[in-house]
Amino acid sequence: MNKFDKVNSKTLWERWQFNASNFPDNDAIVHWIGGEEPYRWTYKNLIETAKKFSVIVRESGIKPGEVCALIIRHHHLFYPLYMGILRIGALPAVLAYPNPRIHPDKFRQGVEGMSQRSGLDWIFTEHDLDPIIRPLIEKKNSTIKSIVFPLEWDLEKNYNKNSDDHIEQDNLLIKETDPALLQHSSGTTGLQKPVVLSHKAILQHVKNCATALELASTDKVISWLPLYHDMGLIASFHLPLAYGITGVHISPFEWVLAPVLMLEAITKEKGTLSWIPNFAFNILADKIDDEELEEISLESLRLLINCSEPVRHDSIVKFTNKFINYNFNPQATGACYGMAETTFAVTQTTPGEKIKTFDADRTALSKGIVRAADKSSVIRVCVSSGKLIDGCDIRIVDENRKDLPPGFVGEFAVKSVSMFDGYRNYPEKTAEVVEDGWYYSGDYGFISENECFAIGRKKDIIIVAGKNIYPEDIEDAVGKVENVIPGRVVAFGEEDLELGTEQISIIAETKFENETDKNKLRLEIMKAGMGIDMNIHKVYLVPPRWLIKSSAGKPSRNANKERILKKEDPQVWSR
Amino acid sequence: MISQELQKVILTELNIDEFDFTDETKATEVPGWDSLNHVNIILAVEKYFKVRFKSVEILRLKNVGDLQKLIDSKLQK
After folding, report:
1. CB contact under 8 A, A260 and B46
2. Is A123 within 8 Å of A71 (Cβ atoms)?
3. Residue in chain B nearest A261 by alpha carbon
4. Of A108, A114, A182, A115, residue with least CA distance to A142
5. How many degrees, rounded to 5, is the angle at CA A279 between CA A277 and CA A283?
6. pTM value?
7. Which of A40, A134, A563, A570 has the fewest CB atoms below 10 angstroms from its CB?
8. Best B35, B40, B47, B57 residue to mutate vs chain A (most A CBs within 10 Å)
């Protein structure tokens, strides 16, 4: 263990300064770039560069408490910039850089929605996005004060020692309960819920996570996760940085094109910890040719944590069977359950112990009863996400938020010492999900022998590769496609066993009857999805009045999904 | 120019009938060709043409024309 537990840092900056003083030459961040030598930030260099950024940030007119959205691609200057913003007491908020397939107007609307909801004050980005974002600033009543291009700043020329000293003095006034950063909970850009976290929440979380992970000074985190995601930002960025160990960051865009990059980074850097969503276990196991794995050794990896989408037993088995031949320790598979609202983790599996599973009777489980499978059962292997970490609590509740006895499936209500203080500018949403200090997560599961098993969602959210997608957004886009009957569309998640995740499926009513028209319509539906950066995997076309309505008069997602997956109706066209 | 064979492999993998591919076509312009599908397309191309790409080669691909050139270079056309 390093000295973390003995140091009583009040703020993240204080904590980082401590690390820079005590381990100046240790690698803080290794910025990984496929096919190139990585860029290595030592703690000393990182903090010095962050100071230079903070001087320009302040001289740009940015004030403590203001929210600075960062929309920047994988770049080695991102990290000290983020830290520099935080140093002056402003709140960094990492947003996703737009995928080229998303329509510029749609992206702009998303940022606008987010700026109104989250109260974005400044946009830190790259010049390419200037024409898309600038109209927002010029708009009446815009919250955004200006757009800046920090990667073009001349840090040396603009550095001013006096200003630096002032910032350091002012930084000492920041309290541990002051907001440190803003992260967004799941959802579509523009509709995501803004979560503000204090220094205290993050530092306590890091400490509790570190205890659960048995973190040591020899640990090294390997990550390709985007930093706008809580698992990327908190687990892979803040945790190592606060603890004084190394975080290796691979571009998510590069990883998805060449998944072997993660394994190369683990091998070369001797990575010990990594968090990935379930689908990545499948991709790594199935989509890399053995020839590419010749020099791979996962010997150093002591914990590979499955999180952010339902943990599938098949995926873990598949990964373990493949990589046991590359020195992967089967006991190194882990899982955790967490969310932005509790900073990140609520539960964590025990390092060095085999991940727990529960063979449940699938029929009983579908009725909300947890019963061990017997010989006559159709089995569902549920995988544990571990035990509660320090400072967290959990209850299993029914639809009236009353506690359920053991042996029943219910909604997870959670509590954490690192809990958010409510969604920013969104009291009505906060009131919906928080009651008496408990956060009602919308996730369904059960507890068995103190192990937490998350098995589903209360709402119809589709989780594609760790990304939460609201069906309403897709239905809105597809409902506007010509020859789809308006309002007669349903989007749902369909299990993709090969990839170990869900894919988006659409059921749409149309009057089209012949094959050619239906094929053309399918393509238009797929393009409508592309316009909002969502890949529609399967399209089911049905005749008018086919969709089952719910009591509210809208097409029911569950009933129609069930009906379509029975594959019994000859009127259904699909591809 | 994109060969008929390459077009066919991509279209089959994406389960679409036609698309007007040019050298400049980017993955993001083709329905269904998202990041999750990209790895499947690359594997299908490797299998069909009996070639093997290095990860660095894949990272450098900017468009379908680059993919065609890479295949050609492997086949020493």
Report:
1. no
2. yes
3. B55
4. A115
5. 120
6. 0.91
7. A570
8. B35
Identify which of A281, A329, A324 has the alpha carbon closest to the alpha carbon of residue A305.
Answer: A281
Which of A524, A530, A540 is most worth mutating to test chain B (most B CB atoms within 10 A of its CB)? A530
pLDDT tens digit at each of 575 positions of chain A? 455 565 689 999 999 999 999 999 999 999 999 999 999 999 999 999 999 999 999 999 999 999 999 999 999 999 999 999 999 999 999 999 998 888 888 888 888 888 887 889 999 999 999 999 998 888 877 889 999 999 999 999 989 999 999 999 999 999 999 999 999 886 555 567 899 999 999 999 999 999 999 999 999 999 999 999 999 999 999 999 999 999 999 999 999 999 999 999 999 999 999 999 999 999 999 999 899 999 999 999 999 999 988 899 999 999 999 999 999 999 999 999 999 999 999 999 999 999 999 999 999 998 899 999 999 999 999 999 999 999 999 999 999 999 999 999 999 999 999 999 889 888 998 999 999 999 999 999 999 999 999 998 877 889 898 888 888 889 989 999 999 998 899 999 999 998 999 999 999 999 999 999 999 999 999 999 998 888 999 999 999 999 998 777 788 998 999 999 999 899 999 99
Interface size A-B, in CB pairs within 8 Å, comes to: 64
Question: Which of the residues A224, A255, A256, A257 would you substitute to probe the B interface, choosing the one with the greatest number of B C-beta atoms within 10 Å?
Answer: A257
- Contact check, Cβ <8 Å, A99/B59: no
DSSP string, A384-404: ---EEPTTEEEEEE-TTSPBP
Residue type, B58: I
User: A349: which DSSP letter?
Assistant: P
Calpha distance A480→B58 (Å, rounded):
36
In the structure encoding, which two tokens stand for residue A284, read together? 């790594």
**Beta-carbon contacts of residue A244 (< 8 Å; ≥ 6 apart):** A2, A4, A18, A19, A22, A23, A26, A43, A217
Q: What is the ipTM metric for this complex?
A: 0.87
Of B32, B54, B58, Cβ closest to residue A526: B32
A334: phi then psi, degrees, rounded to nearest 5: -135, 180
Q: Is B46 helix (H, G, I), strand (E, B) or coil?
A: helix
Q: Coil, helix or strand for B42?
A: helix
* 3-state secondary structure at position A221: strand
Residue in chain A nearest B34 by alpha carbon: A535
Question: Which burial class, exposed, middle or buried, applies to A36 when counting CB atoms under 10 A from its CB (0-12, 13-18, 19+)?
Answer: exposed
Nearest to B32 among A259, A292, A535 (CB): A535
> Tokens 């076509």 correspond to what residue?
B25
According to DSSP, the β-strands at A91-94 and A67-71 are: parallel
18-77 of B, contacting A, C-beta below 8 A: 26, 28-29, 31-32, 34-40, 43, 46, 52, 54-56, 58-60
Q: Which residues contact A347 (CB under 8 A, 6 or more apart)?
A: A336, A337, A338, A385, A386, A387, A388, A389, A392, A394, A452
Angstrom CA distances, A26 to A53, A203, A241, B73, stand at 21, 21, 11, 43
Terminal CA-to-CA distance of chain B, rounded, Å? 13
